[in-house]
Write a structure and sequence with these properties.
The chain is an alpha+beta fold and about 170 residues long. It has four helices and nine strands, in the order H-E-E-E-E-H-E-E-E-E-H-E-H. About 20% of the residues are buried.
């Protein structure tokens, strides 16, 4: 999805500017589970308002693949002698995406809402709402370009996996 060389520099810049404002305190579990997120960003095309995208990631159990049962190393399996013979671990994340522009969308898995508030006001309102309702299993991410919100979700996932697998 984001692997075209034409826009790679723009994607890297956006990823560097994405800020994880709040990590989930609970909700990282070993089985299948849902992980909520809130992506906040300015309206597209320099609009005065802001956009709030909330959704859920569907997270698989932790996957551990050990080639020792095949009596081969990863280097032998992938024909690359640089790979080490160790467990590969990971998770599978899935989320729906909206492709079109300035819409209000809501379903059980994804909600996109445009606001008249500034981005700073929106951040304050979302953080306050999560704290007041004592929601501890959702993350909040601020992005410079809401059009590429899947990059913000990618960064959110990367940080969670970094914490979980370190």
């Amino acid at each position: 999805m984001f692997d075209d060389t034409e826009n790679r520099d723009q994607y890297k810049r956006i990823l560097e500017e994405v800020v994880i404002l709040r990590h989930p305190y609970t909700g990282i579990v070993s089985g299948y589970h849902e992980l909520g997120y809130h992506i906040l960003g300015p309206q597209k095309e320099g609009g005065a308002g802001s956009v709030h995208i909330s959704g859920k990631l569907y997270v698989s159990p932790k996957l551990v693949w050990t080639p020792s049962e095949a009596q081969k190393t990863f280097g032998e399996i992938f024909e690359d002698s640089e790979l080490m013979d160790a467990n590969l671990m990971g998770r599978v994340f899935a989320f729906p995406a909206a492709v079109s522009g300035n819409l209000d969308i809501e379903n059980d898995h994804l909600k996109i809402t445009n606001h008249e508030w500034s981005l700073d006001s929106l951040v304050e309102k979302v953080m306050d709402s999560l704290q007041r309702r004592e929601i501890t299993d959702e993350g909040v991410v601020r992005t410079p370009n809401i059009q590429f919100y899947p990059l913000a979700v990618q960064r959110f996932i990367h940080e969670i996996l970094g914490e979980e697998f370190s």
